[in-house]
Specification:
One of its GO terms (molecular function) is threonine synthase activity. There is one protein chain. By secondary structure, this protein is an alpha/beta fold. The chain has a domain of 213 residues: Rossmann fold. The strands form four sheets. It has a six-stranded mixed sheet with strand order 3-4-14-9-10-13, sandwiched between helices. Helix 4 packs across helix 9 and helix 5 runs parallel beside helix 6. The structure holds pyridoxal-5'-phosphate. Pyridoxal-5'-phosphate binds next to helix 10.
Amino acid sequence: MRYVSTRGQAPVLNFEQAMLSGLARDGGLYLPETIPAFDGLDQLDGLSYEEVAFRVIRPFTGDSFTDAELRGAIDRAYERIAHDARAPLVQLAPGHHLLELFHGPTLAFKDFAMQLIAQLFQIALTRSGQRVTIVGATSGDTGSAAIEAFRGIDNVDVFIMYPHGRVSEVQRRQMTTPPAANVHALAVTGHFDDCQARLKDLFNDHAFRDTVGLAGVNSINWARVVAQIVYYFTATASLGMRPTDFCVPTGNFGDIFAGSIARRMGLPIRRLIVATNQNDILHRALSMGEYRTGEVEPSISPSMDIQVSSNFERALYLAYDGDAGAIRQLMDELKTGGFAISQGALQALRAEFASGRVSEQETLETIRTARAFTGEILCPHSAVGVAVAQRHLEPGVPMVTLATAHPAKFPDAVERAIGLRPALPPHMADLFDLPERMTRLENDAEALKSLILDRRTQ
Ligand SMILES: *Cc1c(COP(=O)(O)O)cnc(C)c1O
């Protein structure tokens, strides 16, 4: 299994190398040269999540890990998800199901990918004796999932940038309270997009990159996408392996892109529906054919408050039939504000993806009505998904909305909607009592580099 960059000018890598490097050296994102067809769709019903994960992930890892290593990593990763089904499917209304992805240690779907890649990093680095420095940018949930997954993992230092004052208190505390010496939370002056831009600066500085063994675990890391393919399979298997629509609260396009890969492997997904909040670059791109950045407008679903959706580059690459030159040109145009998607590529995207945008008011109203009519308390991101899904329900086609976080992670928004604050699950009950530890940082690449050189384990 070989991995190529969407911009066509970086070395071809194997799975382990693509996982350890994150972003390609030409600024592109890695994708498998060919997407493997899945063999045995009719044999998944009733299997454990871990077994399905092994069967889905195995074809992507090539010879990077033995079967025993991969199975061990999967078992250790998912034993920390506090639900026997790992990703349980609950019914919201006739034909409408909610895929609960929030039973992991930091209460968001990102645990599914991060817990697994931490185990895979551990195996790969122990084998090679190499050290790496993981640097990440987060709108809240990636950072907490990364710090939680990598705290105490050997041969890894972790630095996570988050936008100061723009993450929820639960998200912040999940990043600032782990005492492990190898993890560092950095509060950056600016927005998530600033953090993401500084991260790209680091990756584009090849000398720095090599000095510290820079590795990325943002949602652009291919290994994360792979881990997220699994729950599309378990959900579709639970529904009898028939054509199913999925609605996905979307920011960086990682979670929904995993659905697109599942579809290309042969899973009977009919449509993938992108649900956005008022930061709707993806909805505008798919409905009008223009991918144009605007100003980030902070919302009550902060993990989707972005204007550059990194993984969309992968969908574009596939929609442009693997024309890396075309992607390089689009990404150049993006530096000056945006680009028009070609008619052919737009048609290909629309054959696969639908989209919708939800206002703050509708999000609150959806939390209220879901609670009133089903008893389910939705986090604001999941509510954005449910609201868009409701517009796309069709008789005879099951709809699955991904519930991306636990409501207790966003108690202020939930309280505004239904007048009560959801309780944290028991395993996190002491979060508000633990001491916090963070470093304030200006939105500046040089300051970031010197901090990393100073703090990392030599
Ligand atoms: C990260 C996140 C999203 C967006 O997922 P992408 O893969 O970036 O599209 C949605 N909801 C929650 C709760 C998240 O943490």
